[in-house]
Structure formats: C-alpha cells, structure tokens
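Project standup — Tuesday

K.O.: blocked on the structure for the chain from last sprint. Re-posting the sequence here as requested.
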Amino acid sequence: MKALVLGAKNAPLSLQERPDLQAGDGEAIVQVRAAALNHRDVWIQKGQYAGLKYPIIPGSDGAGVVVNADPAGASWVGKEVIINPAFNWGNDPSHQHPRDFRILGLPNDGTFAEYVKVPLQNLVEKPAHLSFEEAAALPLAGVTAYRAIMTRAQLQPDEKVLITGIGGGVALFALQYAVALGARVYVTSGSQEKIDRAIALGALGGANYQAGNWGQNLQEQAGSFDVIVDGAAGDGMDELLNLATPGGRVVFYGATRGNPSNITARRIFWKQLNVLGSTMGDPDDFRSMVAFVDKHRIQPVVDTVFPFADGEAAFRHMDDAKQFGKIVIKIR
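H.V.: unblocked you, prediction finished:
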C-alpha cells in the first residue's frame, strides 16, 4: 500500500510503499478515502510531541470503507465508517488512562495511507449526509469540541457562549454544535474576516483579540458569558475569567499560547467559577458526537482538500495558520 511517511525530525512527508496490513483479533482494515490534519501532525514532524518515533505514518482523522475484519466484525465489511482515533481511554469516563491512552498516528501508524488498521470498537458508521472529506474532518477536533461544551460545560439552549480562536477545527465545531443547540454564540479571532465568516455560520458577534480592548468590546456586545471555550490559555486567560458570568463555566482544551503570566485568583473564587479541563473524549462522547452531527445535519467546515501526493503541501498550509476549517487529504 502507499502511505505518507515521516522518516525523521523535520523531514518532509514522502509517499512510500509500505507492507499490506492484516487484521488481527478484534481489528478491522479500513480503506481510507480521506484523512484530515491536526496541529498534532505538524508538531510530530517538528519533533515537538511526546513519544516520538520515526519512521511513522501520521494522521489521526480518517473516514473510509471497511474491507477486512476479524470474523467477529464481519458485519462491518463494506460499511462506510468514521474512525475514532482515541485508543485505550480506560474505564473512568471522567479522564483518560494516564499511561495506556494513545491517539492514532503516533505510536500507531495513522490515516495518511491507503489502508489503516484499527480496533473494531473504534468504528462508527458515517452519517449519510457527509462526504468522505467532511467525515474525515470530524474525529479529533469534533470530539474535543463536543466533550468540552456538551460533557464538561453542559451547555444549555439560550446560554451565552464565547468561543476563542475561531477558524481552528475545534473552535469551529464548538460554534456549530452551540448554534445547533440554540445557544447565543460569540467568537474571537485575530482576523476580522474569520469573525465575519463565523457570523455567517450563526455567531452573533465577535472581537479581534489583537486589539487591546477586545474584552471590553465583548462586554459591550454581550455582557458576560455563561460558558467560555478556549484552547489558547496564555495571557488572555485572565480576561476570559473576567468575562465569565458568576457561576459560569470556563473550559480549557489546550494552551497554544502557553501558560499565563498573571491570573487574578479572586475572579475565580469570588465569582464561584467552574474552571474545567478537557481533552479528546471517551467512546461515549465520540458516538454521541456523531449522532449529534447526524441529527442536526452538521457539515464540517473544510478549508482545502489536497491530493494524496501533496501531503507535504498540506502540512505547510497548516503551518501558515491561515485556514478556516479543516485541511483534508483525499486518499482515494
């Protein structure tokens, strides 16, 4: 089979022939039709991720058709599926297993290949309204957003929610889920164009976090927020605590801007805020997320679709950080 392979740190992706895959006990072979990028893939290429190994076929997100399976999974053969990229969550739904949990694409070879081997329990039927490219965009970012706003924050209809960094995959899914639920959504971005595109998707307003008065701008538009969903942290974190309504929920699923240099602690205890951490999602989160997407006919936002042979160009496009939506590689 053909696959996009990372041979070493900072090496470009190269299209190579790799051995064919065989399904073991409890496993299936999926013919990948489309796969999507996450920042995780670029960080692996740059050697900025834990547990690195090379060579590796990256890719956590994928959708395709089951072509072979353990006899116990014979009913899956021929079905169009989305792959849950989270392995070994563990028995406690409140958090992933600290040692056994892993994500497809490292250390296991991932979805940037004609075929991928996954456990049967990680297969979910693809909603019929999604193309393979849209379905491939869903898994990692989609379940991260779903757990953050549904499982952790327990967002309710008509609540006000602020979603930061709109344009990234998780933020866009959070926007789409919140709008489908009937919440009142506001966003931040460093680009007015992205804010305008978010408004076209159902957001009521937004603010450019590059401006010094972005917090005040949001207060003037919306007052305070019942739920805030953030993947950046950094020095904007204290302003998010300021924007939260008393008793509100602030969910952090990442820290792309690093640790904050200053936090006003009294904002947390005096306002009785719920500061929640979240990452990925357990198997129930994943199945519920796909069912929610199916019920509300949500279509993932796809920025660009690259041909299989242009995987390295897809990585560089993600590196430019100008995308609005997911970057997809069409495998077949």
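K.O.: great, moving the ticket to review. The chain has a mean pLDDT of 96. The chain is about 30% helix and 25% strand.
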